[in-house]
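Researcher: Re-running this chain for the archive, since the previous output was lost when a drive failed. Same request as before.
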Amino acid sequence: MATHAVALPRRRRRGNPWTSALTYGLALAVAGVCIVPVVYVILGGFRTAGQIAANPAGLPNPWVVDTYLRVISAGRFWQYVGNSTIVALGTTLGVVALGVCAAFALSRYRFRGREAVYTYFVLGLLFPAAAGILPLYLLLRDLNLDNTWWGVILPQIAYGLPLTIVILRPFLLAIPNELEDAAMIDGSTKLGFFWRILLPLSRPALVTVGVITFVSSWNAFLLPMLILNNQNLYTLPLGVQQFQGQYSSDTAAILAYTSLSMMPALLFFLFAERQIVGGLTGAVKG
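Model: Regenerated structure tokens:
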């Protein structure tokens, strides 16, 4: 008599509810630590100094828009925005262009010492920028680059290259060699393959390193403070410091100025959030 085996459905393993609760709790705690100060600064700009002094943790009541309008109409605010944009865009273009070229050579070419060169860039992540700020300032002064935008842009490019190469190289390595072989059969060169195929496929990673570099340059304070002495060249972080010194008693205005100074970088980051996740995921898989 024939017997028929009946396949029983497998039961899914349920995770430990305490582990899930702890994970979500930690995630919410980290999100709160990151989000609450930003929300406090933004809402603080809609209050008056008297409201903040009477109830520092309260909500705007009533909402005051004049503080933001007064900051926007300040004489040098838009000048500082333009300066920060020039420095951040210059740094981003330099880091992305040089980083993708270096990552291309370290991923698609085989030569002696390739891994040693890559390790050298990885070690650059361990070098604290503040440790070399004094020798860097002396070098820039000797090159007559102090008090210039180039004196800020070039060091920021150098500091941004290690992370850029670490993200881009695994991403470029993950692109199949068959694509390159097919391009060579069609008569393309290495540079043609790089320009027509590799760069379009690397768009998520390029956007990732671009956004990270832009936000980092926009928020940079130490290097611009040491290099720039002319107020006409000040970036927004230096403008915030100067504004805080002039209006130290007007807490609402300081919060409004601070929130406006961080808003472009925050919006830029949120706009490219999906591309950042895709770029980092591709780099990890590679």
